[in-house]
Amino acid sequence: MKKLMLVLTAVATLLLGNLIVAPAASATVHEIVAQWCSGKAPLDPAGLSRPGSKNFAQPLFAGGVVSIHPYADGLLVDFDFDRPQTKIVPTGQIILVDTLPDGTKLYLEAFTLDPNFPAFANCPALANL
Q: In the chain, what is the straight-line distance between the N-terminal and C-terminal CA atoms, in Å?
């Protein structure tokens, strides 16, 4: 009898668990596209563009699109432009973007939007730039 009650409780728990609907996640997957196509307006929800958040740029690092390497007198935010999920192209320039609180200089491999990416090519707001 105890085993039957245990099995029934487990089944009921599983059935109830399937009825509970998870709330929609608030994230912006293609932030560059969304921001440029909205006339460069701030995005809402902020998605991955909120510095200091737990997931800030995490997919970019996990997918190998972005990595950080020592460079000159600081660090370089380096893009792998050969990754299929990268929708930007290099300009060939390295630019100083910031100096960290400890004095380390932060450089960025400059890029521009890939004009061959369909979302950029078909964005009216981008066509007027």
A: 74
pLDDT in tens, 12-42: 565 555 556 555 544 444 555 566 666 656 6
**Top-confidence residue, 12 or 74:** 74
Mean pLDDT of 97-104: 92
Which pTM was predicted? 0.56
Distance in angstroms (rounded) separating the CA atoms of residues 8 and 52 = 45
Please write down the long-range contacts of 30-34, taking CB distance under 8 Å and 24 or more positions apart. 30/87, 30/119, 32/87, 32/88, 32/113, 33/87, 33/119, 33/120, 33/123
User: What H or E segment, with its residue span, contains residue 123?
Assistant: none
**Residue 86 CB neighbour total at 10 angstroms:** 19
Q: Nearest CA to 76 among 118, 117, 36, 104?
A: 104
For residues 64 and 96, the answer to whether their CB atoms sit within 8 Å is: no
Report which DSSP code applies to 28. Answer: -
Please say whether the beta carbons of 108 and 19 come within 8 A.
Answer: no
**Number of other residues whose CB lies within 10 A of the CB of residue 79:** 19
Count of residues making up the chain: 129
